[in-house]
Fold:
Amino acid sequence: MNKKFLAVCLSLCLVLAIFIPQASAKPDIFEKINKSERTSTPEFVSGKLTEKSDKKPKDVLFGYLNGKKDVFKFTETAESDFVVLDEFVDDLGYTHLRLQQEFKGTPVYGRTFTAHIDSSGVLTAFSGTVAPELDKKLKQDKKVKKKEAFSIAEEDLISSFSDSPSYIMDPTTEEVIYVKDDESHYAFHVNFKFLYPELGDWSYFVDAVTGDILDKFNQSFKINSVGTGTGVLGDVKSLNTDQQGSTYYLQDNTRGDGILTYDGENVSQNILNRPIRIIQRYLPGNLWSDTDNIFNDSYDAAAVDAHYYAGLVYDYYMDQFNRDSFDNQGAAIKSTVHFGQNYNNAGWLGEPLNQMMYGDGDGVNWLPFSGSFDVIAHEITHAVTDRTANLIYQNESGAMNEAMSDIFGVLAEFWAGLDPDWLMGEDIYTPTISGDALRSFSDPTLFDQPDHYSDYLNTTADYGGVHTNSGIINKAAYLLSEGGNHSGVAVNGIGIDKIGDIFYRSLTQYLTESSTFSQLRSAAEQSAADLYGSNSSEVTSVQQAFDAVGIN
Structure:
């Protein structure tokens, strides 16, 4: 595996942060708007956006949006153009709504939104970018049928591999509206999930008028890079196990619905070239077992670490954020080790498998992937992102997806006290090279990542450079925690715990599928204001950190 990922994305929106007093008899109603120059619509609005109200949160929000229809440029009414996907109340008393934009019943891909209403019924923030004026931009003469769109996408997919992919579930085809380069298209979203000949979760967008492939990208999350047991690095760990008769299993029943660790038995990856009913005979594999509750054979090491570290990740999210597993409903965390043969990768396998998998590495460039706690925390955080912001794995949103996994991988390592540092993957990457790692937060440029937005790499490689441009966000997180001077900007650090709270709130309550770096800044500022006050030093530090990496 090459750590030197090529990078980055499409041309980006310039965003202006402006204050706009409302024309209102109430002088305390005010807005701060991050407005995209490209679409001339708001991306993030915060402040005291409405008066106190006893109305339902949905009614407060829709009343606000309908009064701002000309600003947001949606087509009909808020009630017809936005569908509420989720609603919950957090521990600060805020009601949070997550919404999806539609046009005449057709969802607009990637256009999700969050709204936040305080305990007095005041709308305090609305995040997300509306696809504007769809009634004027969409062509109505759809000519391509659903089956045709599927065939177009599948033919292109198959041509990309020497062996045809073996789907782990039936591909799906959904009619959507897809926005690309400011143009809106009726399209079909075709999704393919497979494990062979490599990990794949491919999304295709086929124009419903012309049959052209508008876009395609892979959303599989990959690294680019009480018994006892001995781990990959030779350390001894205590393990919660389950005894059945005279056999002990790596099944921890003390956390949610369980932490379960399986043996992939180095089954050839050719097995993955089978239908899902066959693949599921091998994944997750056999639940790891032992007869004396001492897991100290060399073959046990990868399983020991996977089991122990997955439990620690669960504990980290529960202790720091009161989050019960990746779905916040106690879902079992399943891990398969000894996946494939000399396999240089690890990953979170989403629906329908919902589990971790770890390769053994080749012994030269990589040790077994489960031997690194920050790698395991990184991958499980992808599952958290899936269930919250669901950041699209492409361009800026994809780089933020990677950065969030890196950030919480490092923060979990500090929380656990496992020789913490601001590096990623250092425990298992190039074991004979001292100080080597996949990525560095303190100096991303050491491993060919940019540390300032002016160096953002525009590329079609690596889905718009998701593993490269994440360095900009990582640098901002490092500065926010530790402080320092960068690009002529002094940043006052606020420490590990506070940046965890700010980024977690940003990820789970403010970011949306297509969020940009600028929206992350707004989300972080708003999260800091929610937690520590709008005039707090924490808000100032957030502003300094994003200024230092050139994100406005």
